[in-house]
Write a structure and sequence with these properties.
The complex is a heterodimer of chains A (about 140) and B (about 900). Helices cover about 60% and strands about 5% of the residues of chain A. Chain A contains five helices and two strands. A two-stranded antiparallel ribbon of chain A has the order 1-2. In chain A, a hairpin with a 2-residue loop joins strand 1 and strand 2. In chain A, helix 1 runs antiparallel to helix 4 (about 50-70) and helix 4 (about 50-70) runs antiparallel to helix 5. Chain A starts with a helix and ends in a 5-residue tail after the last strand. Chain B is mainly β and about 900 residues long. Helix content of chain B is about 5%, strand content about 55%. In chain B, strand 2 and strand 3 form a beta hairpin. Chain B is globular. Mean pLDDT of chain B is about 90; it is low at about 1-25. The chains are: A mainly alpha (about 140), B mainly beta (about 900).
Chain lengths: ~140, ~900
């Protein structure tokens, strides 16, 4: 059981860590994805500042890993024992979850920040440079 | 265990890393259609653009040379579509509703004209479908969010479906029969994956519910009953949130009992509230969405006749989150996690002392991970992992009451005193991986095909530390000698796993005919691991019991066939046949060697115990060749669109189930003896032939098998039912589902013997024909099944009045559950007198019919010019103050409480609530 739980936690960590690997995955997209890429190219292309991207991703992935470990790990060992209902670390799980949402918030702020940066738009008419200005 | 783990991890890794999968089950729907010109000729090259909150950006499709377009794997919700082509007027279809598991067929004609001109059609999409042959019901968020419900758990929501008969409407009951199938034959899914009925998600986190009662395609294995599919909410590009509060108290609660019944203690609410906070939105727009939900839920109440100073204390704290990550618009990851920290007490009655009530508490973390890839307009793949790991303890409901305490059950008065029946430390788990590939072929063998191929692996099990308290049966009125049972604590548990693979095709001939073809293969195997032996003090001795990873297995093939013919544009005739097998049962825990022996004894006048006898000998085995239970299921259906957004469905359903399991005494010696039913209430004076044990009870050997029984007939079921269902989509300010089911459910299952009307109809072996009853379980058990309800009628309506006022009604009528008069004949040679039915299950003796009306009235306020809304509402639950009973205090004709109603439905309660959305 312990091996299963550990395996699943790592699987989830791996699965959730893909935000940081998204560029590689895009490169391997198939024909259908190419159409989507064309669509994506028609919308303003913005880049999230790296400090937001990596800080947010790290917090999110790390927080999720800690949170899932806290909620899934059984402190009673391999067999049920007295106090089974309370045999997980809910505090650790909650802390991990809070960290993950903090990471998500950093990504959110990063994407907002990216929206205020100059953007490049590639289309059939050529390249357009745009910048959002607020006052 | 090691074997299972390695194989499971290998499967997990293979399916995940190779990205082969997907799973078969459904969390999405699709829109397909054909575009034609005014003459009816197909139009290739039309650009179709989709808009909706559930998809990132605005996906497009281009019609093929046959004029066909398709948007697969769409989350449930409303969508708009634009059809554009040079030289033709643009067509816009707005408000197209996609339900879970649905195929919306949207054929669109385009007229010659200027591209700049647009023809807009709103809210018109077909309510009939020629693509599938199923009996299913979907509830969208309009109903989910506005349904007046008890809200004990999400089961109160999913049991609303037509033809679903819940075992009970009180407490934590989570089981139901569906069109005659037993409660253990259903499948429960969250976001498309089977997780059993164990995890209980927050009702407010549900986006849509699909109840698939018959006609499940080959994607679905190990299910003879209904598939309850819960699709949870998800984030999108807009930041939203909501906070919901529900409140009840004793001042808002009526009384539906008299002093004579409740001794001055009517149903009482000590504390009841339910609050949820949810937030959803983007971490990264069009890329990374989140949804989070927290709920706290409390019901402290006491049943009529129970001292309100000792309420049952039910609590739940539920957390749910979901993340959607769009790697690209066509490659998506989804992660969801649900956890339910719960405290659930048993149900008290006026005959049960508070100290006898068990409190089950624990939590069940339930994570899942899904990858969906739209490789092209013709190919979709999906991979899915999910599971849960429950940890729970069973303790006395009243804090401070001793856990180990003798329990007394008076067989003459029905009074139960002393301690809880057993304490326990429990784990159970279930996890699986699944993958599938869907390929659309437009022209092959004279038609088009939606071809699905999938592979599934699941494993589940339990591991328990159990301590059964000594239980003594007393006879305070008749004065018979008391008897009892005792058993030392023990570890035990069981495990099972299954592999399934399937191929399924939706084969379309022309515009009118669709054939659903499916074939699946399942291999299941069950076993048990090693456990520590315990000594007299309950401490491990250091020795381990033997493991057995192959107690028995099933290897089964299930064909499915559906034929659908469009008689007219608005009328479709359908037929379906399928063979459906049950999931492998872990019903053999009694044979796990670490189980201690259960001993019966007689109690002397001074309380001394003597005549210790083992009624559950250690010689118990499982027949390795036991057959896999299955049912052949037939359906004929007419589906008709009465008008826009209003559909009528009429079904005839027939099921024939066979090969259900039970126990056989293979060595005991029995003789038939006449028994005259002449004692107690309603004694008929008839003579029945019962079975008297003439050999030593402890020397018997029991075999868990597919029994034939003394009458040469095994355990089986038959179901005939006709259903009529009207479904109205939200338009013109109202929506609703109105249904009526007439049925007859007959046969003989394990639950046909010795079972109370509030118990679940089950086809699992249980203790049928074992221990204290032996072959007497076959006496008078043929007939109507426990879940038989000849009439089930339900009405669910939502109406949007002007000025932001909304009304909703949830009404139902169900025939009461049946029960039979029983006796405990002495002198049959068993250590404890067995319970035997003294009348067949004719269905003539029933508890009261269920007649319930729940009502909601809501007023919504818009706060300023923003999207913020505040809704205030009240629910009148059990508006008519019905007091139907779900059970009787005793079925024993000799008991003074024979037939006395217990488990009365809760009286009329007013539930106040508020919903704040932004």
């Amino acid at each position: 059981m312990r091996a299963i739980r550990i395996g699943i936690v790592w699987l989830l960590i791996g699965g959730l860590s893909t935000p940081a690997l998204a560029d590689d995955l895009r490169a391997s997209a198939t024909r259908a994805a190419e159409r989507a890429a064309e669509q994506a190219a028609q919308s303003p292309k913005t880049t999230m500042p790296k400090v937001y991207l990596w800080t947010g991703s790290a917090l999110f992935v790390g927080g999720m890993a800690v949170g899932l470990y806290g909620f899934l790990n059984n402190e009673n060992g391999s067999l049920p024992e007295f106090g089974e209902a309370e045999a997980t670390d809910k505090t650790l799980g909650t802390a991990g979850l809070v960290a993950a949402f903090a990471g998500g918030t950093v990504l959110f702020l990063g994407s907002r920040r990216a929206g205020q940066s100059p953007s490049l738009k590639f289309g059939p008419q050529g390249v357009t440079v745009a910048k959002t200005v607020r006052w | 265990m090691r074997h299972l783990t390695i194989r499971g991890l290998f499967c997990l890794a293979a399916l995940t890393l190779l990205a082969v999968p997907v799973l078969a089950q459904r969390t999405t729907g699709e829109i397909i259609g054909r575009v034609t010109d005014a003459s009816g000729a197909v139009l290739p090259g039309v650009t179709v653009t989709l808009h909706g909150a559930g998809v990132a950006g605005a996906p497009t499709a281009v019609t093929s040379e046959n004029g066909l377009y398709r948007f697969p794997v769409l989350p449930p919700g409303l969508y708009d579509l634009d059809f554009t082509m040079q030289g033709f007027t643009t067509v816009r279809r707005e408000g197209v509703q996609v339900a879970v598991g649905s195929t919306v067929e949207l054929d669109v004609p385009m007229a010659v004209g200027a591209l700049e001109e647009t023809v807009t059609v709103t809210g018109e999409s077909p309510v009939v479908s020629v693509s599938t042959s199923q009996v299913s019901t979907s509830y969208n968020k309009e109903w989910v969010q506005n349904a007046p419900l008890r809200r004990y758990s999400y089961f109160d929501l999913i049991m609303s479906a037509p033809g679903i008969s819940q075992t009970s409407q009180l407490g934590s009951t989570s089981t139901a029969t569906s069109l005659g199938s037993s409660t253990n034959e259903n499948q429960y899914q969250i976001d498309g994956t089977d997780i059993s009925a164990t995890p209980w998600p927050n009702t407010d986190a549900v986006e849509e519910v699909e109840v698939l009662q018959l006609g499940a395609s080959a994607e679905y294995g190990n299910v003879q009953g209904a598939v309850f599919n819960i699709v949870t909410r998800q984030g999108a590009n807009a930041l939203h949130g909501d906070a919901n509060v529900y409140f009840q108290n004793d001042n808002l609660t009526s009384r539906n009992t008299t002093d004579a019944y409740d001794n001055g203690w009517p149903y009482h609410i000590a504390d009841q509230h339910d609050a949820t906070v949810q937030v959803s939105g983007p971490f990264i727009k069009d890329k990374f969405w989140f949804f989070g939900s927290l709920q706290t839920h409390r019901i402290y109440d006491s049943q009529p006749g129970v001292n309100p100073a000792s309420p049952s204390k039910s609590d739940a704290k539920r957390v749910f989150w979901k993340f959607n990550y769009n790697i690209t618009p066509n490659h998506r990851l989804l992660h969801g996690y649900h956890d339910d920290f719960y405290w659930i007490p048993g149900i008290t009655t006026q005959f049960t002392a508070p100290s006898t009530i068990t409190l089950s508490h624990g939590h069940n973390p339930t994570p899942n991970l899904v990858y969906t890839g739209v490789l092209s307009s013709n190919t979709v793949i999906e991979a899915r992992y999910s599971g849960f790991w429950l940890q729970a303890s069973d303790d006395p409901n009243e804090e401070g009451d001793p856990t180990i305490q003798t329990r007394y059950e008076d067989q003459d008065t029905g009074d139960i005193t002393g301690g809880i029946s057993s304490w326990g430390e429990n784990r159970s788990w279930r996890w699986g991986v699944q993958g599938k590939v869907v390929r659309y072929v437009e022209s092959f063998l004279g038609g088009s095909h939606d071809l699905k191929v999938g592979l599934q692996y699941h494993t589940h099990g339990a591991s328990n530390l159990t301590g059964n308290n000594d239980t003594i049966l007393t006879y305070s009125v008749t004065g018979r000698p008391s008897t009892g049972t005792t058993q030392l604590p023990f570890y035990r548990g069981t495990e099972a796993s299954w592999w399934g693979t399937y191929i399924d095709d939706t084969y379309r001939f022309g515009d009118r005919t669709v054939v659903n073809l499916g074939l699946r293969y399942d291999y299941s195997v069950a076993g048990y691991p090693a456990f520590p032996f315990l000594d007299l003090q309950g401490n491990p001795t250091g020795e381990m019991s033997a493991a057995n990873d192959h107690v028995y297995d099933y290897s089964v093939v299930s064909p499915r066939l559906g034929v659908n013919y469009k008689l007219f544009n608005s009328t479709i005739v359908k037929g379906h046949y399928g063979r459906y097998y049950s999931a492998i049962e872990r019903d053999y825990a009694a044979i796990v060697p670490s189980t201690t022996t259960l001993l019966n004894f007689t109690v002397g006048p001074g309380g001394n115990r003597f005549d210790f006898t083992s009624t559950r000998p250690t010689d118990q085995r499982v027949d390795p060749n036991r057959k896999a239970p299955y049912s052949d299921q037939y359906m004929v259906q007419v589906e008709h669109e009465l008008m826009t957004n209003l559909g009528l469905q009429v079904n005839y359903v027939h099921k024939r189930g066979t090969d259900f399991p039970g126990w056989e005494d293979t060595t005991g010696q029995y003789v038939q003896v006449p028994y005259v039913d002449n004692v107690g209430t309603d004694a008929s004076g008839q003579t029945f032939m019962l079975w008297r044990l003439t050999s030593n009870a402890s020397d018997r050997s029991f075999l868990l098998t597919t029994p034939l029984g003394p009458d040469g007939r095994g355990l089986y079921m038959r179901y005939h039912g006709a259903t009529v269902m009207l479904t109205k989509r939200m338009s013109n300010n109202w929506q609703g589902v109105v249904s009526m089911v007439w049925s007859e459910s007959t046969g003989r299952l394990s639950s046909s013997a010795r079972t109370a009307p509030s118990a679940a109809q089950s086809s699992a072996a249980g203790t049928f024909a074992q221990t204290a009853s032996g072959p007497n379980d076959w006496v008078n058990t043929d007939g109507r099944l426990l879940g038989d309800k000849p009439i089930v009628a339900k009405v669910q309506l939502v109406y949007q009045f002007p000025w932001g006022i909304m009304g909703a009604i949830n009404a139902q009528h169900q025939t009461g559950r049946l029960w039979a008069r029983q006796v405990r004949p002495a002198g049959l040679g068993f250590p404890a007198a067995p319970i035997v039915n003294m009348e067949a299950n004719t269905g003539e003796r029933r508890v009261e019919d269920v007649d319930l009306i729940d009502l909601r009235v809501q007023k919504e306020f818009r706060l300023g010019d923003s999207a913020m809304r505040l809704a205030l509402f009240f629910d009148a639950l059990n508006l008519t103050n019905s007091n139907h009973n779900e059970n009787v205090a005793s079925q024993l004709g000799t008991a003074t409480t024979f037939g006395v109603p217990i488990r009365l439905y809760l009286p009329r309660r007013i539930q106040l609530g508020t919903k704040f959305r932004w």
